[in-house]
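[job 0412] stage=fold_complex status=start
inputs:
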Amino acid sequence: METTTISLVTIIAEGVLRERLLEDLKRLGARGWTIGEVHGHGIRGISEYFWAGSQVRIETLVSPAVGEKILAHLQEHYFTDYSVTAFVHDVRVVRPERYV
Amino acid sequence: METTTISLVTIIAEGVLRERLLEDLKRLGARGWTIGEVHGHGIRGISEYFWAGSQVRIETLVSPAVGEKILAHLQEHYFTDYSVTAFVHDVRVVRPERYV
Amino acid sequence: METTTISLVTIIAEGVLRERLLEDLKRLGARGWTIGEVHGHGIRGISEYFWAGSQVRIETLVSPAVGEKILAHLQEHYFTDYSVTAFVHDVRVVRPERYV
Amino acid sequence: MELAETLGILQRNLFSPLTLAFVLGMIATLVKSDIEFPEQAYKFIAFYLMFAIGLNGGVELAGTTFQTFAWPALVTIFLAILLPTACYFILRTVFRFDVANAAGVAALYGSVSSVTFAAGIGVVETANIGYEGFIPTLAALAEWGIIVALFWGRLGLKTPNDAIGKVVQETLTGRSVILLMGGLLIGAIIGEKGFERIAVVFSQGPEGLFRGVLVLFLIEMGMVAARQLREFARVGPRMLAFGTAMPVVMGVLGATLGALSGLSLGGAFILAAIAGSASYIDAPAAVRATFPQANPSIYLTSSLGITLPFNLLIGLPVLYAYTQWLCYSVVGCAVLPAGG
Amino acid sequence: MELAETLGILQRNLFSPLTLAFVLGMIATLVKSDIEFPEQAYKFIAFYLMFAIGLNGGVELAGTTFQTFAWPALVTIFLAILLPTACYFILRTVFRFDVANAAGVAALYGSVSSVTFAAGIGVVETANIGYEGFIPTLAALAEWGIIVALFWGRLGLKTPNDAIGKVVQETLTGRSVILLMGGLLIGAIIGEKGFERIAVVFSQGPEGLFRGVLVLFLIEMGMVAARQLREFARVGPRMLAFGTAMPVVMGVLGATLGALSGLSLGGAFILAAIAGSASYIDAPAAVRATFPQANPSIYLTSSLGITLPFNLLIGLPVLYAYTQWLCYSVVGCAVLPAGG
Amino acid sequence: MELAETLGILQRNLFSPLTLAFVLGMIATLVKSDIEFPEQAYKFIAFYLMFAIGLNGGVELAGTTFQTFAWPALVTIFLAILLPTACYFILRTVFRFDVANAAGVAALYGSVSSVTFAAGIGVVETANIGYEGFIPTLAALAEWGIIVALFWGRLGLKTPNDAIGKVVQETLTGRSVILLMGGLLIGAIIGEKGFERIAVVFSQGPEGLFRGVLVLFLIEMGMVAARQLREFARVGPRMLAFGTAMPVVMGVLGATLGALSGLSLGGAFILAAIAGSASYIDAPAAVRATFPQANPSIYLTSSLGITLPFNLLIGLPVLYAYTQWLCYSVVGCAVLPAGG
Ligand SMILES: Nc1ncnc2c1ncn2[C@@H]1O[C@H](COP(=O)(O)O)[C@@H](O)[C@H]1O
Ligand SMILES: Nc1ncnc2c1ncn2[C@@H]1O[C@H](COP(=O)(O)O)[C@@H](O)[C@H]1O
Ligand SMILES: Nc1ncnc2c1ncn2[C@@H]1O[C@H](COP(=O)(O)O)[C@@H](O)[C@H]1O
Ligand code: NA
Ligand code: NA
Ligand code: NA
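[job 0412] stage=fold_complex status=done
writing structure:
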C-alpha cells in the first residue's frame, strides 16, 4: 500500500466555538474534518461550567504547512481567552490528494 | 515500562457501513476495535445528507502488516463509492500480544 | 510555529472505572484530560455485557515521564482484571507548560 | 364536490396544528435559529408513533373478516410492485437517469414515509372519521416497494441478485414493520378492554398523547425538510416536477384502488397517503448500502426537501378532497365512525 | 385455589400488554430487526418509573401507622440479609463456584430488579386491587442485599472490608433508592390534592401515563434480555436451573413473610416480586467494581437472559397465584381497593 | 395583606411538588447520588415546555385587543433596557467589577430563565388563577436584555459594535423566542377547538402533561443548581448578596410596572418572575462568545447556584405575596379565571 505522510491536527474546544472554528479551518485550507462530542478538564476548567453543552473534538487531516497555519491561528486568536487544546502529529494516508 | 510499537488504524465512515466494516476488520486480522460516533465534512459531503444517523470512527490496534492489509482493503472496496477516510500511525503499547 | 513534543496517552476502559481512573491520572501528574464515550470489542468482551453503559476513551497530554508512569500504573492495577486498553504516542503542542 | 369544498379542506388542513408545526420547523431552520430537537427524542418518538399506530389498529381489528382484508391487501401488494417499477422506468426513459440513480429514487418513492403516513392518520382524525383496523398492515406491505426498486437496479447493473436475500430480510424485519405489526398483534390480543388502561399514552383520539406528540415531531420534520430544501438548487426543476407530480399520481392511484377494493373513506385516503409518500430514512439507508454510486443529493433532496413538505402542505388535503369526491360521487364507500 | 385458577392467572398475565410488549422486544432481537430504543430514552423512562412509583406510594401513605409499617420493614431487612447469604452459600457449596463468582451472582439475586418490581405493580393494577403506600420503602430496603453479598465475597477473599463504606454509601444513595424515597416523601407531603394536578403524568391508574410508558419500556427490556439470551450456551444448564428456581423460592419466601407480617394481598405479592427478582444494572456495576475477576457472562446472563424473562412470563403470575392462595386460604390478609 | 398570609403563600409554595422536586434534585447531588438525568431528555423537555407555554398563551389570545397588549409590551421593553443597564452600572461602580465581568453578569440578570418563568406559571396554576394569553410575548421581549448588556460591555471595552448584528439576530431567533412565539401563533390559529385534541400533551391544567413534566424537569434543575452551589466559595458573599437581592428588586419592579400597565394579578406576577430571573443557558453562551475574558465562575455560579434556587424557594412566593398585596390593596388589577 503506497501511503503519504500528512499532518493530523486535533483541536479540543468549548462547544460555543464550533461554528467559528470550522469556518476558520476552511479558510486556512482544511478540506474536511471530523467532529466528536467530548467532556474534559484542564487548568482553566471552563468545561465544568458549561453544563448544558459539551466540548467538541475536531480532527482535520491537512498538509504540514496548513497544520502550522492552524496552530498559529489558534495561538493568535484563541489560546489566551478560550479553553482550547490542540496537538498535531504525522499520520499516513492513501489518496493524499483528498486532504491537502 | 517496556513497550512495543504497533499500528493504530483509524477509519471514519458512513454509519451504514458499520457492521460491514467490523466484519471486514475481523476477517483481516484485527482482534479488537473501539467505535465512537462522529459527524464530519469532506469533499464528498455524504454525511450531510444522512441527517438521521452519524458516522462511525473506528480505531483498531493491529500489527503493521494487518494495518497495510486494512488500508489496501479499504482502497479496493470502499474508497471509490463510499465516504470513508482512513489513516494510520505508530503507537506504543504494553502487552502487544493482545492486539497482534 | 514553535512546538514541543510531548506524549499523548489514550486509555479505553469500562465505564465503571471512569472516576477511579481520573483520580489516578491526577495523582500521577496529568493536568488535564478529554473524555469521549465509545463502544468496543476486544479479546475479553466485557463491553458487550455492560449494555446499559458505554466505555470511556480518555486522552491525556503529559510529559514522557508521566506517560510512562501512567502505563506502569495501568499495568499494575488494571490490566489483569479489567478491560482496559492503552496506547501512547508523540504529539507536538504549542504552550507545553500547560500540560507537563 | 365543488372547488369551494376542496379549498375548504385545504384550508382546514393548513390551519391544523400538525401542518402549522411543520411550517414552524421550516421557518426555524430558514431563519437559522439554534433551536435543536435531540436526536434520541426524534428516534424515540418515531418508535412510539409506529407502535401506537399498530396498537390502535389492532384494537379496531375485532370483527374484521378475511374478505374485507384480502382485497385491500392484494391492492397494496400490487401498488408495492407497480409504483417503484413505474418510477424506475419513468426516470430511466423520460429523465434519462442512470440505473443506480433511477433505482435509488424509485426505492424512496415506491415505499412509505412514516411521517406522511402518521400525518395522514392525523388528517382522518381531524375529519372525525375512522378507518379500518388493518391499515397498519397495508403500510407494512407497502414497504416491500424497496425490494422491487432494488431488484430493478440490480438487474440494470447486472449485479448478481444473490444479496437480495439480505435486503428482503432487512425489509421484513425493518423497524417500522416490526413495530406496526407487533403493535397490531398486541392490540388485537388485548382488545378494547386492555387498551383502555394504556389509552392515555397510545390513543389517537383526544384522550391520548398521539396527536400532541405528532405535533412535536412535525416541528423537527419541518427543520429537517428545510435543511434539505437548501440543497434544492443542485436538484433542479425536473426533480421538482417529479417530486410534486408523483405523489399526486401515486396517491390518486392508491385512493382509487383502495376505494374499489372496499376500503372506507378513511382507509382509502390513508392508502393514498401511503402510496403518495416517499421514504426518507429506511429506503435511503438501503439505497446507500446497495447503490453507493447513486447520488443522495438527488434522492434525498427530492424525497425530504420537496415531496415531504409538498405532501404535508398540499398533497394530503388534495388527496383527501379527491378521495371524498370519489367515495361520495363514484364508489360509494363506507364512512366509519371515529375511533371505530 | 385450583389449578384452573392458576392457569387463568397465567393466561391473563400472558395476554397483558406488559408481557406482550416484552415478548415483542425479544422477537425483534431474535429476528435481528434493526429496531432501536434510544439509550437516553431508556434511562429517562427508568428515572420516571422509579419516581412515579415512589410518588404513588407517598400519596397512599396517609393514615399508615408505625405498626403497619414496622413488621413488613423488618421482614424486608431480614430478606435482604437472608437471600444473598443463601445464594452465596448455595453457589459455593452446591455449585462449587469460586468466591468472586458466588458473591457476584448473590449480589444480583439478593437485590432488586426495577423492571420486575414495576411489572409486579403492573400485575396488581391489572388485577384491580391496591397495595400499601410504603411499598417503595421496602424496595429501597431490599437494595441492601448488594452490601450483604459483597460482604461475604470480601470475607471469602480476605480482602480488607474497609472499602465497604463506599459500597454502603453508594447503595444508600443509588438512583433507585433516591428516586423511590424522594418520590415517596414528595407524595406524602403533597397528598391526594397536590397529586391530582400531576396525576396525568404520574398516576398508575388508567388516567395516568405509568402503565403505557411501562409497556414501551418492556419492549426495550425484551430486546436487552434476548441479547443476553444468546449468551446462554456459555452459562449452561446449571445456571438455567438456578435462574428459574431461585426466583420462585425467593418469591414464595417474600410472599409468605410479607403476608405474615400483615401486608395485604397486593403488598405481599409485590414483596414477592421484589424478593424474587434479580438486579441487572446497579448490582452488576457494583460487582464489576468490587470483584472484577468474577465473570459477567455468568451473573449477567443469568439475571438478564434467564431470570428476567422467566419472571415476566412465568414467575410473576405463579407468585401471584401463590400469594392469592396464601391470602385467601391460609393467612387471610386484607385486599386493598385499587388506587387506595 | 398580613405577614401570616405571606407566610401561608411561602409555605404553600414550599410544599408544592414543583419546589419539592427541585429540593430533591439538590439533595441528590449533595449526597453524591449517581442519579442521572439524560442530557437529551433535558433538552427535549426544555423544548416542550417553551412550546407548550406559547401554545397555551396563544389559545387564550382570542379577544385580546391591541390596547390591553400595548402597555405591558412597552413596559417589558423598558425593563429589558433598564434591568441590564442597572445591573451593569451597579456592578461597575458598587462592586468595582471590570467591564467584561460586569457586562457578563448583567446579560444573565437582564434576561430570562426559562425554568423560573415556567415555575412562575406553575405558581399561578397552583393559585388557581389565570393570566393573559400574550404573556409568552413578554418573555420573548425580555430576552432582549442580553443585547443591551452586551452593548454596554462592548462600549466599555471600546470594541467595535459591528458584530452586534449577529447577537441581535441570534437573540431574535433564539430557541426560546422561536418556540414561545411559534407556539403562540399556532395556538392563536387553532383556537380552543383545535387545542382540545392535543390538550393532553400541552395543557397546563390538570388534564395535561405540563405540570408533571415540569416536576421531572425541576429534579434535574435542582441537581444542576447544587453542582454550581459547590462553587459558591469562589464567588463570595458579595455575589450572594447580589444574587438574592437583585431578583427581589427586579421582580418587584416587574410586578409594579406590570400591574400599572394593566396586567391581571397572574400576569403581573409572571412578569415579576421574568424580570427577577437570571438566564443560565442562552445568555451565558452569548457572554462566553462575546466576552471570553469574563469569568464564568462568577456569572454562572451566581445565576445558577444562587439566584435560581433562591427564586424557586423564596423569591417566587415572596413576589407572589407582593403582587397579591399590590393588586388587592393598591392597583386593583383584575384576577383572571384559571385556564382563561
Ligand atoms: N493535558 C490535557 N490532556 C488532554 N486534554 C486536555 C489537557 N488539558 C486540557 N485538555 C482539554 O482541553 C480543555 C480545555 O482545557 P483548559 O483550557 O486547560 O481548561 C479541557 O476541558 C480538556 O478537554
Ligand atoms: N481532511 C479531513 N480531515 C478529517 N476528516 C476528514 C477529512 N476529509 C474527510 N474527512 C472525514 O471523512 C468523511 C467523508 O469524507 P468525504 O468522503 O471526503 O466526504 C467526512 O464526513 C469526515 O468525517
Ligand atoms: N485491538 C484493539 N484495537 C482497538 N481497541 C481495542 C482493541 N482491543 C481492545 N480494544 C478496546 O478495549 C476494550 C477492552 O478490550 P478487551 O479487554 O480486550 O476486551 C474493547 O472493548 C475495545 O474498546
Ligand atoms: Na410511496
Ligand atoms: Na431479589
Ligand atoms: Na431578569
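[job 0412] summary: Chain C has a mean pLDDT of 92.
[job 0412] exit 0
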